[in-house]
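Field log, afternoon session.

UNIT: design team B
ACTIVITY: writing a sequence onto a fixed backbone
BACKBONE:
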């Protein structure tokens, strides 16, 4: 079996030959031994100690060849022999680590550190002990005792629990305990400072901040400053040096009379004074009431605004004034802005087809020719009007169309026809006849693109309108004699409008309250002496949430309208094939697509504002270049440079 070679250790039992000299064998007292070893191998000493003590030793291979010299003139007890043995091991860099009942392992000291027990009665064995500190910093104490432990020992500071973990020889631990007891004492002193000018809370905050050095943990500093508002005093407790320094600083700061500081004029950079006054007044009332409840009889707080300079004028006790100044600093921050860009796209396609035949047969004067005519309310002119204008019986008919207004109107109506028109007409004796065939197809496509955009402050409201103000009659009042009517008129905005109120949240999402409207005049209707207007309006009023720079759709409309018109002569218009001569047909199709998109962009600083401006300016120049107006784009750059006195955005 290769147990011995695998472990590289030697097991010594009590039966090994002894090299000890016995003394006092006839005495009833414990047996004593005289140790005399002169340059012998360590394994021989281990064997003799095993015989005397009865312990079993497991020896590290490196310890077998070591040579030792031990000499004692005084007889030693069994325990003393074991202590001398451990000391001899320690001289050669080895130690004995308990490995069970009456069993030890002989290992190098560096290995024994990790195997050290929590407690040990042997002074020459490595032992682990934990020291809990109450007043001193574990990190600082570890640096002090590190040089005092054995070379192979260890000391670890646990800042979280403020404890020390020490691994060292058991014989050295009592010295460390005594030293730590002296080090870990409470050096705190307590002192109270009465203040005259500076509020106690403000002074306590200053002293606490000064006691912590850069990079230090405030919890590890033995210093505390507590304010007493009722007596305007600060209680200091902690290290004597820190307390002494805090007293000097507080006296120096409190030596300045702050009576004149009870009045402040604070100019605002971003906020509006009129908006801040109500908020500050509410806070001042609460602080005045709290001071009054504490028994303080100081003057109340007064807050006013100076609108021309956008400044606040505050008269208040020092503590209240300091609190109000902090509130003003927080509220008078530069507010973010939001650039809101909208795209309104409207596409329409109207298609209309019409096919119809009109004819007329009629007699003139006393002719017995019957009257027959077809007329449809379509785009073709009235056959009766044409026949009447061209008839020789018309009083105005002079044979010259330039002097016959009816003939002139008839010709103009024919010339105004759209599409294909084929007709024939004339007069044969007493008979007037005529026919017009009309075929029309209209296809109208339109594409309207609007891009309104504006910028506003966070929680501010912006309004943009590009259009006209159109007068709309809302009423009419007659005079006493029902004459000289008085008409009331209201002006209405017509065009493209965009109203936006953005609100930026902490996660950079934006809530938008939006009113977007596109309107125009469809047509005018005249009734009597008054004219009414009909408006086309497309309006969206909604609230949405969008991410920064995200394009979202607000709404839209997809509409398709089909219409069919069939005008005919009863019975005759229903005759197959031939019935086409007695009817007029029309068909219409109208499609409308309307979409509104919007994109909000947060503008927090100068760089964001510059980027937004450059993007809009580049879009304008690109439009000019796309339309082939290169000279116009260059003129725009020169105009911006001349008027604003700076190069255009690039």
């Amino acid at each position: 079996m290769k147990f011995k070679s695998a472990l590289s250790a030697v097991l010594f039992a009590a039966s090994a030959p002894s090299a000890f000299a016995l003394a006092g064998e006839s005495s009833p007292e414990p047996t004593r031994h005289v140790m005399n070893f002169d340059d012998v191998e360590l394994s021989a000493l281990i064997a003799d100690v095993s015989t005397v003590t009865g312990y079993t030793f497991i020896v590290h291979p490196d310890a077998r060849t070591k040579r030792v010299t031990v000499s004692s003139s005084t007889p030693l007890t069994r325990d003393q022999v074991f202590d001398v043995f451990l000391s001899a091991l320690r001289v050669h860099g080895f130690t004995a680590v308990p490995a069970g009942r009456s069993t030890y392992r002989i290992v190098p000291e560096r290995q024994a550190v990790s195997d050290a027990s929590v407690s040990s009665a042997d002074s020459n064995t490595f032992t682990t002990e934990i020291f809990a500190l109450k007043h001193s910093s574990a990190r600082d104490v570890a640096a002090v005792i590190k040089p005092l432990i054995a070379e192979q020992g260890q000391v670890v500071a646990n800042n979280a629990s403020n404890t020390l973990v020490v691994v060292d020889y058991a014989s050295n631990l009592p010295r460390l305990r005594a030293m730590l007891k002296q080090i870990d004492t409470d050096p705190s002193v307590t002192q109270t400072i009465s203040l005259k000018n500076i509020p106690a809370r403000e002074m306590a905050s200053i002293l606490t901040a000064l006691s912590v050095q850069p990079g230090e943990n405030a919890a590890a500093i033995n210093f505390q400053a507590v304010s007493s508002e009722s007596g305007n005093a600060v209680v200091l407790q902690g290290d004597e040096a820190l307390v002494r320094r805090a007293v000097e600083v507080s006296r120096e700061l409190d030596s300045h009379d702050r009576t004149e500081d009870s009045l402040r004029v604070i100019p605002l950079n971003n906020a509006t004074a009129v908006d801040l006054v109500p908020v500050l007044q509410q806070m001042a009332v609460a602080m005045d009431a709290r001071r009054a409840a504490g028994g303080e009889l100081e003057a109340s707080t007064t807050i006013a605004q100076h609108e021309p300079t956008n400044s606040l004028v505050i008269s208040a006790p020092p503590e209240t004034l300091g609190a109000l100044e902090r509130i003003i600093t927080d509220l008078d921050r530069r507010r973010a802005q939001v650039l809101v860009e909208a795209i309104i796209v409207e596409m329409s396609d109207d298609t209309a087809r019409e096919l119809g035949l009109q004819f007329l047969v009629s007699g003139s004067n006393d002719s017995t020719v019957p009257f027959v005519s077809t007329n449809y309310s379509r785009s073709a002119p009235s056959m009766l009007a044409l026949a009447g204008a061209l008839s020789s019986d018309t009083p105005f008919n002079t044979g010259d169309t330039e002097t016959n207004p009816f003939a002139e109107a008839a010709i103009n109506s024919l010339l105004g026809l759209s599409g294909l028109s084929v007709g024939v007409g004339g007069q044969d004796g007493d008979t007037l006849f005529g026919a017009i065939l009309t075929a029309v197809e209209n296809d109208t496509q339109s594409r309207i693109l609007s891009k309104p955009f504006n910028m506003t402050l966070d929680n501010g409201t912006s309004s943009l309108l590009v259009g006209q103000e159109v007068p709309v009659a809302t009423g009419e009042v007659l005079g006493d004699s029902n004459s000289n009517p008085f008409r009331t008129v209201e002006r209405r905005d017509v065009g493209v409008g965009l109203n936006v109120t953005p609100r930026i949240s902490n996660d950079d999402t934006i809530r938008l309250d939006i009113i977007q409207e596109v309107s125009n005049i469809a047509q005018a209707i005249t009734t009597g002496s008054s004219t009414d207007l009909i408006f086309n309006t497309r309006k969206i009023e909604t609230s949405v949430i969008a991410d920064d720079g995200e394009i979202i759709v607000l709404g839209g409309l997809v509409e398709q309208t089909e219409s069919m018109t069939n005008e005919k002569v009863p019975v005759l218009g229903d005759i197959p094939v031939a019935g086409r001569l007695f009817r007029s047909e029309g068909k219409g199709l109208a499609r409308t697509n309307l979409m509104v998109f919007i994109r909000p962009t947060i503008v927090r600083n100068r760089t964001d504002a510059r980027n937004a401006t450059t993007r809009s300016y580049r879009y304008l120049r690109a439009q000019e270049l796309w339309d082939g107006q290169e000279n116009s784009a260059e003129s725009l750059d020169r105009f911006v440079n001349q008027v604003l006195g700076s190069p255009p955005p690039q």
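LOG NOTE: Residues 344 and 596 are 5 Å apart (CA to CA).
NEXT ACTIVITY: expression trials, pending approval
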